[in-house]
Amino acid sequence: MLNGKHYAKQREAFLKAEFPKLHKKMTADGTLDDHLKMIAEESEDLASTLYSQMMEAAPEEMDKRMQHFEGIPLAIREIVQHDLILVPPSR
Questions:
Q1: Has residue 11 been placed in a domain?
Q2: How many other C-beta atoms can be found within 10 angstroms of the C-beta atom of residue 71?
Q3: Do residues 14 and 89 lie in contact, with contact meaning Cβ atoms separated by under 8 Å?
Q4: Cβ atoms of residues 8 and 39 within 8 Å
């Protein structure tokens, strides 16, 4: 699984590309680091929760179980991206 710092870097890249004025303002105000730290923590919490839930939901049959386990990291990355990283900031 990717760590929170990775997701924080992705969030900063997203803000810089899609909301450059806000990124510049947050940098100037000194609020960007706190925001990215919060994203790192939230992404790690979400990824941990999702991992636990997905492990519990594994099917009984061994071949399906292995396919399930192999897909967990990708599913977690996609959910964290969708729910935390690529979310437009509230104004």
A1: yes
A2: 11
A3: no
A4: yes
pTM score: 0.85
Cβ burial, residue 85 (10 Å; 0-12/13-18/19+): buried
Pair of tokens at residue 25: 């303002």
**Total domains present in the chain:** 1
Residue 37 belongs to a domain: yes
Asked whether residue 70 is domain-assigned, the answer is yes
| Cα-based distances in Å from 37 to 5, 14, 50, 59, 74 | 8, 15, 20, 36, 23
Per-residue pLDDT reduced to its tens digit, 26-82: 999 999 999 999 999 999 999 999 999 999 888 888 888 888 889 999 999 999 999
Cα separation of 64 and 16, whole Å?
41
Does residue 26 fall inside a structural domain? yes
